[in-house]
Design a protein that fits this description.
Number of helices: 8
Number of strands: 8
Strand order of the largest sheet: 1-8
Largest sheet: 2 strands, parallel
Number of domains: 2
Distance between the termini: 56 Å
Structural class: mainly alpha
Order of helices and strands: EEEHHEEEEHHHEHHH
């Protein structure tokens, strides 16, 4: 007899009149706040200026939200033209049958209550915000910034994946394993891999590893090393898990690698480069003054 866990949790935590407050949004907010508290602790340990955590909070929250939203709308919102009431377009000799409604109606990007956030887009937004923050305020190089920021990001990412579980979204293929989840709210009749929990687990592993690297092994002096290891843990495991995930969008059907895997590859390569580059350079004491990419 098939053993599984029935999951039928209401994603709405509570309502304020017509406004529904979802667990997903609450967990996002709590994760961002805990990441901020972690930055306060780490910057105090490094004897950095007291106002730096506040600056990084403003830049990074803006970067991750804008990047995650734009990333989802650009990477995942491609649909067959006929379903949107549009005609295919021709570019040179290619007939493109997929269209993106956000290109046709860019103001729809502002409707964040309709959902749609991408972790890869969030990562791009964070890096962009880090470059701007470093250029305008810190001047330490983005690797120094992210060696500390990613420790807090591990906590935030864990809570975001928990939010995905509350939403009964982004999970895996059917499974006969005893910890398979039957997502009742979606009308599923077969238990599936709870990949949200798998991803929470590798985020926790990344948190433990990066904390040990920073506090016990003093790897913060090798700029980019913690940042690179974080990328390798997060995106290598993400790449592997995508093989047992259901496609998020119809256009991914039949692809050798899905969109999440293609987007993970550049981060894996960048993470490996960061590790090699950091190990080749001598450790640096105190607050550095680097070029933006170091």
């Amino acid at each position: 007899m098939l053993s599984y866990i029935t999951w039928n949790v209401d994603p709405v935590a509570f309502s304020l009149g017509p406004l529904e407050v979802r667990w997903y949004g609450i967990l996002w907010a709590v994760g961002i706040y805990l990441c901020y508290l972690m930055q306060v602790r780490l910057y105090k340990h490094d004897k950095a200026p007291e106002d730096w955590p506040d600056k990084i909070f403003v830049y990074m929250v803006t970067g991750v939200i804008v990047g995650a939203r734009l990333g989802h709308c650009w990477f995942y919102e491609w649909h067959e033209a006929s379903t949107l009431g549009l005609e295919p377009i021709q570019i040179f000799a290619w007939n493109i049958n997929y269209r993106n409604p956000y290109i046709e109606h860019p103001l729809e990007l502002l409707k964040i209550w309709q959902g749609g956030l991408s972790s890869h887009g969030g990562a791009i937004g964070l890096i962009t915000a880090g470059i701007i923050l470093n250029k305008r305020h810190f001047h330490t190089g983005i690797n120094w910034i992210f060696d500390r920021l990613v420790i807090g990001i591990c906590i935030t990412a864990t809570l975001i994946r928990l939010g995905n579980l509350f939403n009964s979204e982004i999970y895996g293929d059917p499974t006969d394993l005893p910890w398979g989840f039957l997502f009742v709210r979606n009308g599923d009749t077969l238990p599936c891999h709870p990949t949200q929990i798998y991803e929470m687990m590798y985020c926790i592993v990344a948190f433990v590893v990066t904390m040990l690297m920073y506090y016990k092994w003093d790897c913060g002096k090798r700029q980019g090393l913690i940042f690179g290891v974080f990328f390798l843990i997060i995106f290598v495991t993400r790449f592997c898990l995508e093989f047992i995930k259901l496609d998020q969008e119809a256009f991914e059907a039949g692809m050798v690698l899905n969109m999440g895997q293609w987007l993970s590859i550049p981060f894996i390569i960048y993470g490996a480069w960061l590790v090699v580059h950091a190990l080749r350079k001598p450790p640096v004491e105190g607050l550095p003054h680097n070029r933006w990419w170091e």
